[in-house]
Amino acid sequence: MSHDLAPLYAQHVATLRQRADQALALGGFDHLLIAASTPLRIFLDDQDYPFVANPHFRHWLPLTDAPGSWVVYTPGDKPKLIFVQPRDYWHVVPAAPSGYWVGQFDITIVRTYAEAVALLPKGRRAVIAPECPSIEGVEANNPEVVVNYLHWHRSYKTPYELVLMREASRIGTRAHHAAEKAFRAGESEFGIQLAYLAAARQTEKELPYSNIVCLNEHAAVLHYTHFDRIPPKQRRTFLIDAGANASGYASDITRTYAADGHQEFQALIDSMERAQQGFGAKVKAGQSYPELHIHAHHVLAEVLREHGLIRLSAESAVQSGVTSAFFPHGLGHPIGLQVHDVAGFQANESGGFIARPEGHPYLRMTRALEPGMVVTIEPGLYFIDMLLEELRAKPVANDIDWNKVDAFRPYGGIRIEDDVVCTDGEPENLTRDAFAAHA
Ligand code: GLY
Ligand code: MN
Ligand code: MN
Fold first, then answer.
1. Residue 105 has pLDDT above 80, yes or no
2. Which CATH number is 5-154's, of 1.20.1560.10, 3.40.350.10, 3.30.70.890, 3.40.190.10?
3. Domain 159-437 falls in which CATH fold?
4. Which burial class, exposed, middle or buried, applies to 438 when counting CB atoms under 10 A from its CB (0-12, 13-18, 19+)?
């Protein structure tokens, strides 16, 4: 990252302080205590599950590996970091804090989780931490009023956060390039995954989610996270849904490629690409996200018609659920500190819930877009045996060209996914900008 992050980070912390002031006042609390949280032990083992720090903690600082540490904020005071650096010769201990961010905190280094807890201020405390397992000596309470307020405002990314999200996109697209090369060179899913990790220079545990690397029919499994070690005899499709992590911020990127010589499938990808870019262009202030999702169903119905898969009007294809059989997930979701970020359904800063449109159970974002929000735009079109069987049993089955469907089944499906920032004007497409920068 070429940026001087210090001034942007100072501004970010100032914003978080204002939000915390407001959240604490609403709940009648004196202190905000945010646990990084502690690792979960595997049953009957002496190892832990991979540690993922509390996203509230990561909102305040770019520390992804600080188990047992706490951020303490008391309105009017400089934020404090109680940082646990154990005496331990078995593991690498977290490095002492350094970098552009440390000036914003009063930092105390302690050796144990218990010492950290002992330093937490007393009084009326909002303790943001996992409730299970509880951390000895302090009870998480996660007051709804505080959490709702903070979640709502987390939707609006600060300029500092956008710098990190651009970086997460750059790392991800760099690795996507390497993965495509590996596919073209005839690698297995496993081989492609290794090429991806090498180019990202991130371990699987550092990535924001498990990579989805699909060849051929596997592209029909939405969350395919198995890695075949042997390449298929014939290569037709390569679908990769893989992101990267920058100081705790995620990118979430999907691309689909046809192997050379598969023109019909390539033409379907080209249509999906045009459709996807059209949806991305609509990431503008005031746009209702669920309406964009429904609009996507209509556009995808046209794609299905153009390619001879269905003979219905777009309207009846959407109404009868035909498009849902080919596009059975949501158009996208908020993204940030978590790949599926918080507050996608929240009605206002106090909470509430905006329901999904009927018949669209997997949509993860029902709000209207506003400047500062970042969402994914990830339409898909799949040939999923289970859903196609259900479709075949419906009266509309007569309006579907099953020979065409069968011809596409060996390709699995298509998904194209970008991360897009809503601004005051034109959208900023983090993914396309990052791909263009490597071109
Ligand atoms: N990679 C998970 C998703 O696209 O939502
Ligand atoms: Mn996604
Ligand atoms: Mn994805």
1. yes
2. 3.40.350.10
3. Creatine Amidinohydrolase (3.90.230)
4. exposed
Query: How many other β-carbons are positioned within 10 Å of the β-carbon of residue 404?
Result: 14
**Which stretch of DSSP H or E encloses residue 191?**
helix 189-200
- 296's enclosing H/E stretch is helix 289-306
Phi, psi of 238 (to 5 degrees): -135, 115
Residue from 378, 382, 418, 431 whose mutation best tests the ligand 1 pocket (most atoms within 8 A of CB)? 378
Query: 5-154 and 159-437: same fold?
Result: no
**126-173: pLDDT as tens digits:** 999 998 777 788 999 999 999 999 999 999 999 999 999 999 999 999
Determine the average pLDDT of the residues in 367-381.
98
Query: Closest ligand 1 atom to the C-alpha of 329?
Result: 5
Residue given tokens 């996992």 in the structure block: 130
Query: Model confidence over 257-289: pLDDT tens digits?
Result: 999 999 999 999 999 999 999 999 999 999 999
143-167 burial: b if 16+ Cβ within 10 Å, else e: bebbbbbbbbbbbbbbebbbbbbbb
Cis amide linkage into residue 334, ω under 30° from 0: no
pTM above 0.90, yes or no: yes
Cα of 173 to ligand 2 centre, how many Å? Answer: 15
What pLDDT, in 10s, does the model give residues 226-247? 999 999 999 999 999 999 999 9
Compute the 3-state secondary structure of the chain and give helix, strand, coil in percent, each to the nearest 5: 40, 15, 45
Cβ of 222 closer than 6 Å to ligand 1, yes or no, is no
Delimit the domains of the chain by residue range: 5-154, 159-437
Per-residue pLDDT, 135: 79
Which of 241, 293, 365, 414 maximizes ligand 1 atoms within 8 Å of its Cβ, making it the mutation to test the pocket? 241
Q: Residue 393 half-sphere exposure, CB side, CA atoms within 13 Å?
A: 5
CA of 208 to the centre of ligand 1 (A): 10
**CA–centroid distance, residue 44 to ligand 2 (Å):** 34
